[in-house]
Structures are given as C-alpha cells and as structure tokens.
Amino acid sequence: MSLSSKQKATVKDFFSKMSTRSDDIGAETLSRLVAVYPQTKSYFSHWKDASPGSAPVRKHGITIMGGVYDAVGKIDDLKGGLLSLSELHAFMLRVDPVNFKLLAHCMLVCMSMIFPEEFTPQVHVAVDKFLAQLALALAEKYR
Amino acid sequence: MVEWTAAERRHVEAVWSKIDIDVCGPLALQRCLIVYPWTQRYFGSFGDLSTDAAIVGNPKVAAHGVVALTGLRTALDHMDEIKSTYAALSVLHSEKLHVDPDNFRLLCECLTIVVAGKMGKKMSPEMQAAWQKYLCAVVSALGRQYH
C-alpha cells in the first residue's frame, strides 16, 4: 500500500501544519502508548518513571517525533533514508515491530485530538499509510 | 469476565456522555470506509460509495453508522456480562452477514479517532486506556461466535 504523490503531498502539508505542536504531540503519543498498552513499558525498565506524562516519557516522545519528522523529509526513499535507524532498532533496541503499529495508532489519536479540523479522513489515510511504510522501513534490518 | 475498576467505569461513562450517536456514528463509519476502503465490500446495497464525497453524502452509510454505534453503546449498561450481551449479534455477524471480525477493530479505531477529535485533551491517557479496553471487550464478544 504505497503512497501516491498526492498522499505524499498531503503528509508533508499536514506535518508542516503540525510543526508548532510537534513536541506536544510526541510527548502525548508516548504517554498514551504506555497508558493504553502497558506492556510497552517493558522497553523502558531502565527509567525511574515510565508512567504517562512523566518527564522521561515526554522527552522520549519528543525524540521519536523528531525521527518521524525526519522520515517525512525522506518520504521518497524511506528504506534507504532510515537504514541506520533500522540497524539501531534491529540490533540494539530490538523493539518488537508490533509496537510500531501501536505507536502509530496513538499518534493518529493525538493528531485528531490536537488538530480535529485538519485531521480529515483524507489526511488520516495518508498519514496512516505513511506511518505503516515508516514501520516497514524501520523493520527492514530485523532479519 | 472483564474486570473493571471504579475509575475505568467512570472513564467509560464520561466518554459516552460526550458522544452524540447521531453525529459520531456516521462520522466513524464514513471514516472507516474511506481509510480502510476494503471494508466497503459489506455495503454493496448502499448505493454510491465510489468517492469520499459519495460516502460522506450517503444516507444509508449515515443511518448504519447510527445503528452500529448504538450497538456499541449497549455494553455500557451490561459491563459485567459483555460476552452474553453480544452473543446473538456475534452469530448474526458471522452466519448472516459474514463480516471478517477484524473489521470490528478497524471501525473501533476510527471511532476512537472521531471521539478524540471531539474531546481533545479532555480524553486523558487513562481515559483513552479505559475506552479502548471497553471497545476491545465488545470486539472480542462480537468475534466469539465465529466458527
């Protein structure tokens, strides 16, 4: 399910609109991931506090959002552009790829929450496809 | 049986109190048909679904959105017996309608996104967790009578 050029433009446009709130969306996204899917906290056992809204969770959510924004810039070649990030996730972090879907869902919920007018069904499908492609590119080096 | 804390029950009730079924039902089903177009396979008798605009303007889609969301609300009054509450509906979806139960999950994802759009940050992470747990329980019950 690859992105049409119209959908790529939709993704770039929406992320550009979102940029003033990207830190907030990133922080909220990860807070919701650990709240709604508590098993994801297993990857953060080295933090003192992995509860929703905690400082390490918010900070890491912002980091992740930065990565997603970087991927938007590489939307024409996600596999190539995300090679080193994929190696990081495959060999060091070893995050089960099922969690990419869970994170994507929480991100979509936050986008809808913070930009209810702009997050139309058309934007929704384009961003959903983009996040799925991003997840595939991240999992590229897993095996 | 699904165990609910008092806080979870409060959260689920709070979300339902913010939902206008006549508004959110149609929005959720329209979004599902647009975002996951293969779900249109079940609505061959609904007329024109060929464009996003057609889906949004389709009165049968809107009416069915209300039916589906009303059905999802039933569990609110039967939180301690969700499985039995949906047994007949599960048989219907399996044996008469032949709906792949994964579609229940897709509709519920779209519903959560519609509700999140209406509630904004009033839907806290804990509230979202309880809400999704509720939808998960209903989806599971709806899929139980498939053989």
TrEMBL record, chain A:
Start and end residues of each Globin domain: 2-143
Pfam families: Globin (PF00042)
Keyword list, A-Z: Acetylation, Heme, Iron, Metal-binding, Oxygen transport, Transport
CDD domains recorded: Hb-alpha-like
UniProt-listed PROSITE patterns: GLOBIN
Biological process per Gene Ontology, one example term: hydrogen peroxide catabolic process
Superkingdom of this protein's organism: Eukaryota
Gene Ontology terms: cellular component: blood microparticle; haptoglobin-hemoglobin complex; hemoglobin complex
Record GO terms (molecular function): haptoglobin binding; heme binding; iron ion binding; organic acid binding; oxygen binding; oxygen carrier activity; peroxidase activity
Sequence similarity: Belongs to the globin family.
Function text: Involved in oxygen transport from gills to the various peripheral tissues.
Stated name of the protein: Hemoglobin alpha chain
Species whose genome carries this gene: Gadus morhua
From TrEMBL, chain B:
Assigned keywords, A-Z: Heme, Iron, Metal-binding, Oxygen transport, Transport
Globin domain mapped to chain residues: 3-147
SUPFAM superfamilies in the record: Globin-like
Any GO CC annotation of this UniProt entry: blood microparticle
Any GO BP: hydrogen peroxide catabolic process
InterPro entries in UniProt: Globin, Globin-like_sf, Globin/Proto, Hemoglobin_b, Hemoglobin_oxygen_transport
GO molecular function: haptoglobin binding; heme binding; metal ion binding; organic acid binding; oxygen binding; oxygen carrier activity; peroxidase activity
Short name of one Pfam family: Globin
Function per UniProt: Involved in oxygen transport from gills to the various peripheral tissues.
PANTHER family recorded: HEMOGLOBIN FAMILY MEMBER, HEMOGLOBIN SUBUNIT EPSILON
Family designation: Belongs to the globin family.
Protein name: Hemoglobin beta 1
Organism placement in taxonomy: Eukaryota, Metazoa, Chordata, Craniata, Vertebrata
